[in-house]
Amino acid sequence: MAKLTLDDLRKLRDEKKKTLSRRSAEGKRAEVVIGMGTCGIAAGAKAVFDAFLDEMSKAGIEDVTIKQTGCMGLCFSEPTVEVLCDDMPHVVYGNVDDKTARRIVREHLAGKALVSDHIFDKPSTDIIKHR
User: Fold this and answer.
1) CB-count burial class (<10 Å; 0-12, 13-18, 19+) for 120
2) What's the rounded Cα separation, in Å, for the pair 127 and 55?
3) Phi, psi values for residue 64, rounded to 5°
4) Using an 8 Å Cβ cutoff, are 64 and 98 in contact?
5) What pLDDT digit, counting tens, does each position of 38-82 carry?
6) Which residues of 75-99 are buried (b: 16+ CB within 10 A; e: fewer)?
7) pLDDT the model gives residue 107
8) φ, ψ dihedrals at 41, nearest 5°
9) The pTM is what?
10) Of 29, 53, 123, 131, which has the fewest beta carbons less than 10 angstroms from its beta carbon?
């Protein structure tokens, strides 16, 4: 393995800081929660998570938090992704693959339009925690 220079280490640190800042909810307008329970991972949730990160980077979206959670109870529609935006209805998308994840970024997060052909559920308003 090649030795890392101080500049290499600084670049690596900056990349990791940027990745970690995506998980912080402070000052963000929306939150994306990806089901990463056993069923979600088996259905491809890791690729979905990576697609969200990649597409958000390409689109320059930095005011959205991305997190992972355990099973959401919708195993029949894995991978599942919950999107909570301040100015839109909160929804759970199902059967999300990497292509659909990229659509959600472009259409829902950037374009403010629901990706209606993948909506499987919406959280009950009486259990939503308000920020």
Assistant:
1) middle
2) 30
3) -130, 130
4) no
5) 999 999 999 999 999 999 999 999 899 999 999 888 889 999 999
6) bebbbbbbbbbeeeebbbbbbbbbe
7) 96
8) -65, -45
9) 0.76
10) 131
Instruction: Give the tokens for residue 53.
Output: 């990160």
Structure tokens at 120: 């499987």
Domains of the chain: 28-121 (3.40.30.10)
- SS3 category, 69: strand
Q: What's the confidence (pLDDT) of residue 25?
A: 62
Q: Hey, what are 122's tokens?
A: 């919406």
| Length of the chain in terms of residues written | 131
CB-count exposure of residue 130 (10 Å: 0-12, 13-18, 19+): exposed
